[in-house]
Write a structure and sequence with these properties.
- The chain is α/β, with parallel strands linked by helices.
- It has two domains: about 170 residues, FAD/NAD(P)-binding domain; about 100 residues, FAD/NAD(P)-binding domain (3-Layer(bba) Sandwich), CATH 3.50.50.
- Helix content is about 35%, strand content about 20%.
- The strands form six sheets. The chain has a five-stranded parallel beta sheet with strand order 8-15-9-10-11. Strands 3-4-5 form a three-stranded antiparallel beta sheet. Strands 12-13-14 form a three-stranded antiparallel beta sheet, with no helix packed on it.
- Helix 2 links the parallel strand 1 and strand 2.
- Helix 1 runs parallel beside helix 2 and helix 1 packs parallel to helix 8.
- The longest helix is centred in the C-terminal third of the chain and has 50 residues.
- The radius of gyration is 26 Å and the shape is elongated.
- It starts with 5 loop residues before the first helix and ends with a helix.
């Protein structure tokens, strides 16, 4: 496994329990590191992301899986997995779960507060800021969605143009449009206080939702010439198979909408499919060895009979 998040560790756990030799290489830079808590993961709601990973790592190693802290520079056909420290690993199958990166709006303060009180996913963090004064930047869709969690939502178009029917939709839901370019997120006392516009006006808000551009961390897959879809994301079937035999991918590396629990499920699905292919390969190898042994026994019997006849 390349990537030790929810998808990679879930896959490793399934394969380790299937008595496969498993190595997980992880760079230690999870996407959700800035978040204090994770949500929507049944039985783990409210847990710190680092604690989920620690529990997962302990479970994988408990079944004999191996964890390597490092970065994979390249995967060569075969498969030879090259690490940044110069070492390498050999594998029969490779599962890539390297996630994605969030390209945030270039508004001062957004990157610094992202995952705290500058948020993206209302399903992940909306409940924690419910009934508070909220702002949404650029995305009409996000503003209409966030309205589910608070009756006090302001929409900041920033540099976007709003279609007349979208203004009507926002108005119908009680969402006021605040025109003007957003110049920065105002923070005081390590808390978000508001949104500053180009005229210097600061609009008080308790939290702000933004829409990042999702970019897959797919360099290892494209390096193997795995096919991509029309949007440039690695193409996989429902089990996580890429277009290259023996190469698999799961989680946010192929699905920008995957929540933690979704990614974990995708990792488990891929692991079961990988094990199925390995079982078939093992059967084929056993049959070949069995046939070769049978042929040698027949040949030895014929030779023995010939010698006896002499």
């Amino acid at each position: 496994m390349v990537g030790g998040g929810a998808a990679g560790l879930s896959a490793a756990l399934v394969l380790a329990r299937a008595r496969r030799r498993v190595v997980v290489v992880d760079a230690g830079a999870p996407r959700n590191a800035p978040a204090a808590h994770l949500h929507g993961f049944l039985s783990r709601d409210g847990m710190a992301p680092r604690d989920l990973l620690a529990a997962g790592r302990a479970e994988v190693t408990g079944y004999g899986g191996h964890l390597v802290d490092g970065t994979v520079d390249a995967i060569e056909p075969g498969f030879k997995v090259r690490l940044a420290d110069g070492s390498s690993l050999a594998a029969r199958h490779v599962l890539v779960t390297t996630g994605l990166r969030d390209e945030l709006p270039g508004i001062p303060g957004v990157a610094e507060r992202f995952g705290r009180d500058v948020l993206h996913c209302p399903y992940c963090h909306g409940y924690e800021v419910r009934d508070q004064p909220l702002g949404v930047v650029s995305s009409v869709h996000h503003a209409l969605l966030v309205r589910q969690w608070s009756s006090d939502v302001l929409f900041f178009p920033h540099t976007a143009t709003i279609a007349p029917d979208d203004r009507d939709r926002l108005g119908a839901r009680g969402i006021r449009v605040v025109d003007g370019t957003v110049t920065r997120i105002v923070v005081e006392g390590d808390r978000l206080r508001g949104v500053e516009l180009d005229g210097g006006t600061v609009v008080p808000r308790a939290a702000v939702f933004v829409g990042p551009r999702f970019v897959p961390n797919s360099g290892l897959l494209t390096g193997l010439r795995c096919a991509v879809d029309g949007d440039g994301w690695p193409a996989v079937d429902p089990a996580g198979r890429t277009s290259v035999a023996g190469v698999w991918a799961a989680g946010n590396a192929v699905d920008p909408r995957a929540q933690l629990i979704t990614a974990a499920g995708a990792g488990s699905t891929a692991a079961i499919a990988i094990n199925t292919e390995l079982v078939e390969a093992d059967i084929a190898a056993s049959l070949a060895a069995f046939s070769a042994t049978a042929e040698r026994q027949v040949a030895d019997a014929v030779l023995g009979a010939s010698r006896h006849g002499m």
